[in-house]
Amino acid sequence: MNCDTTDHVDGIDRRSVLAAAGAGLSFSLSGCVDTVQSVVSDAEDDQISLSLVTVPDDGNRETVRIARHLEQNLEAVGIDVTIAWRSRSEFLKMVLIDHDFDLYVGRHPADFDPDFLYEALHSTYAEESGWQNPFQYSNPTFFDPLLEEQRRADGDERRERIKPVLRALAEEKPFDPICRPDEYRVANTRFDGWGDGHLATRRGYLGLESEADAERLHALVTDARPSQNVNPLSATVDEQGTITDLLYDSLGTLVVTEDDEGVAYDVEPWLAAEPWEWEPTDEIDASESVAETDETKTDADGMLTATVTLREDCTFHDGEPVTAEDVAFTYQFLKDTARGQSASPSPAPRYRGQVSAVENIEVEDDYRLRITVDAGTEVGERALTVPILPRHIWWNEIQDRIGDLENFRAPQGRWGLVETNSVSPIGSGPFQFESQSERTYLHLERFDDHFSRRDDVDLPEPTVDELRFTVDPGSTSSISRVESGDADVTSSLLEAHSISDIPDSSDVERLESPSWTFYHLGFNTDSGPCSKTSFRQAVTQLIDKERITEKMFYGHATPLSSPVTDEWVPDDLAWDGDDPVTPFIGTDGSLNVAAARAAFEAAGFRYDDDGRLRDRY
Amino acid sequence: MLSEVLTRVVIVVSILLPISLGLFVGRERLATTRTEWRSRIRLSGPAILVVSSVLLLNRTVRQDGPGIGVHMTEVIRKIEGEFVLIFQEVATPQLTAYFSFIYIYGYTFLLVFPVMAYFALSDTKMFRRLLTAYAFNYAIGLVLYALVIAYGPRNVLPELIASSGSGTSTMLYDHSPEFKYLTREVNRNVNVFPSLHTSLSATVGIFAYLTRSSYPKWLPVAIVLAVSVIISTMYLGLHWGIDVLAGLALASFCVALSCRIVGRWSLSGLYEQLTEFDRF
Questions:
Q1: Average pLDDT value over all residues in chain B
Q2: How far is A56 from chain B (nearest CA, A)?
Q3: Has residue A1 been placed in a domain?
Q4: Do A224 and A136 fall into the same domain?
Q5: Which of A124, A287, A410, B190 is a plausible cystine mate for A338, CB 3.0–4.6 Å?
Q6: Residues A277 and A400 placed together within one structural domain of the fold
Q7: Binning pLDDT at 50, 70 and 90, where does residue B176 land?
Q8: CATH number of residue A461's parent domain
Q9: What pLDDT sits at residue A213?
């Protein structure tokens, strides 16, 4: 009894003493830390130090070379640089999910339509993980309205509305586009019809004819990730989305056509049975809304609605029917992968821009639905290119993960569902998943019930029984395998250094496709010196884009001042031998160090006696 | 593709082995081995068991990193800078061909031949020591691979290694894709510290010195081959100088350890000790 009391009292005492001590300690420490900091400053030991994330040569030779070019010039102006080398998926995790970087050099998948800038830069996404705004750039009063205005416009008006976005981007530099690589692939002439469809999209693999009725199409990829994970939601796998495009259908499909006047990008009906008409929206039924905020916009001003009719009797690869419910589910699910079960919504780390345009979906019957977008027709049609996911599979997956509703958390961009490779990759696309072997291959089989194979459907169809993607990590070796007939096509774009290895042979066809991806330097605008626009501008002036395209891409790339395809770039931003806004400080690849240092001083930074750039003014 | 390379390795090594067995080991020793091989295997049983289980473990563990390591590429690069590029200055197509051949075929031969040569000795001590040293090399190397995640120079300084010498490339990877298949199959690209090519070659070199009285002609050959393998790892941009230093240290450690262990406790000796202990 006695013991008990003592223990009890003792316990309380100890706890309260600890609490008091803790409070005192943290109070005194906070004073301490300040002192330490000022001592350090007196010692002039706060050189600006930046971390630069990139992939090794096995991932992408060009990014390594750009990163080292930048490192050299940053060090020349007195900035300390630490490079972090990570595999492709770890690189994307560090940049997109963890935001653990000051600078990174990488290739952006971008998109055929400049509205990808909406998801890349809108301040709503500054806190989110995924392809949406990895720069954590936030400029709600100036930038967001520009991004929103362009998406509500169409045609020539939109072209005008894009210009201020691009001009602001060139000044603000949350990221800096460096160059656009020429997109080369090689194919064996065993098959006919290469180049009718873009090989980064599903149509590149459909409608191919072979004289000998080949049963297998053998494609090579330099990237091992498709052999590991084909989760369509994951931000760290297959950024181009080619595999997803084959496994899953979308309402509309991208058709890239090239003629003398240039390249045209159209979204044409795919899972939708007939062309859709966009009409001004009358009103919105709030109960059906898929809007992101609780306050559903009932003001339908400026919105457009399309009635989409699905092809009938389509099924997923497991035999379940594809209905309007699946389509509605997909758009709701991409906006919140936890479907309202978690404390806060958990949007998917991809397709954020596409689905953000969708305001409302009304299911009319099994095959008809009305899609309302808060955007013009161009952006509206881009929203129709997301993969349609089977509700029965993904809804089960969510429920399996909920388990205990009280403690259920779905951390945005990083919870199990959007990362796992365990969800069966069942879609309704022209090819179905058969098997994969890590770091070796991904094997797909033709989906015999796909609508493109119907007699009354005039679309390119899967002609081969099997489509195998084999991992071959080198472009040079991939080219010789295609030449020898061991493989049919290189699915990944060829690295610049290997393009000169393409043989002049009647067995091999060299394919050049329109390209929209670009190499870029990304900044973490959230903290450190990179949060200052003037600092970012000065850093971008250390990059010799012209030289990079000549020396690192052997001329197989175009230097960029704007990250969009040429037809969108205003004349005053067009490349004129140098970046019109932030030209390289130097000539022929060598930096004018004195002038570059002056640029950092003009940006408000100063140098210490040892020539190191200092953090403080 | 991979099987073609493996076949070629097997062919080259099986041509080299009989020649060198005749040259260095001699007919007499081979003849006695034919009569004594059973008892020698029995005596060496534990060492054979240990090395085969380590190799088996090596095979399964190396492909997937356990995810506990620390990224060290930048630390290594900051310490040693662009040291390995000095080999690029002397690069010629002939040297590249030589070192590529040595890296794959010479190395395999260098590891396999002493196993046979020491088995052909009546005293199995050296045979057991060699196997034990191999096992230690792999086992410790495996632990270090798990702890240190680092890319080799070719992954980090590609442009310098790709465009050196007289316009030739020493990038094994660009122009001899079969090597890529082989190395990819046996290793992950972040397993560079330490260089096991270095440590195992140096192990063989040290053993060649220790057995110089039995195999005097093997010593110079082993030294030349071992030094060539060690240089090839840097010449081809596969390893940093630091990996090579660590490999040399690992080799000395493993040889010393195997010499201390093997012969000190033999299983039969242990059995005797135990039975003796029982009597008290």
A1: 86
A2: 5
A3: no
A4: no
A5: A410
A6: yes
A7: low
A8: 3.40.190
A9: 80
CB B210 within 8 A of CB B126: yes
A378: which residues sit within 8 A by CB, 6+ positions away? A113, A115, A154, A155, A158
**Parallel/antiparallel/unpaired status of strands A183-188 and A368-373:** unpaired
- Could you tell me if residue A371 is inside a domain? yes
> A299: domain CATH number?
3.90.76.10
Domain boundaries, position B246? 2-279
Q: Minimal CA–CA distance to A74: which of A43, A58, A52? A: A52
Does residue A320 lie in a domain region?
yes
| A68 and A172 share one domain | yes
pLDDT of residue A294: 46
Tokens 């690209």 belong to residue: B189
Each residue of B146-155: pLDDT tens digit?
999 999 998 9
Give me the domain span that covers residue A463.
Answer: 183-230+429-513
Contacts of A477 in chain B (CB under 8 A): 177, 180
Q: How far is B217 from chain A (nearest CA, A)?
A: 41
At B131-144, the pLDDT tens digits run 999 999 999 999 99
Counting Cα atoms < 13 Å in the Cβ hemisphere of A309 gives 6
The average pLDDT across A429-443 equals: 94
Number of domains in chain A: 3
Pick the residue of A49, A51, A60, A85 with the most B CBs within 10 A to test the interface with B by mutation.
A85
The interface predicted TM-score of the complex, written ipTM, equals 0.86
Picking from A491, A513, A535, the residue at the C-terminal end of a domain is A513
B240 bridge partner residues: none
Highest mean pLDDT among A44-58, A212-226, B220-234: B220-234
Q: Are residues A148 and A57 in the same domain?
A: yes
pLDDT, tens only, A358-370: 999 999 999 999 9
CB pairs under 8 A between A and B: 58
Cβ-based neighbours of A357, under 8 Å, separated by 6 or more: A115, A151, A373, A374, A375, A379, A380, A382, A383
Check whether residue A159 and residue A283 sit in a common domain.
no
Q: What is the pLDDT of residue B276?
A: 59
Using beta carbons and an 8 Å cutoff, which residues of A are at the interface with B? 56-58, 61, 64-65, 68, 82-87, 439, 472-474, 476-477, 480-481, 486, 497-498, 552
Q: Within this chain, do residues A63 and A103 fall inside the same structural domain, yes or no?
A: yes
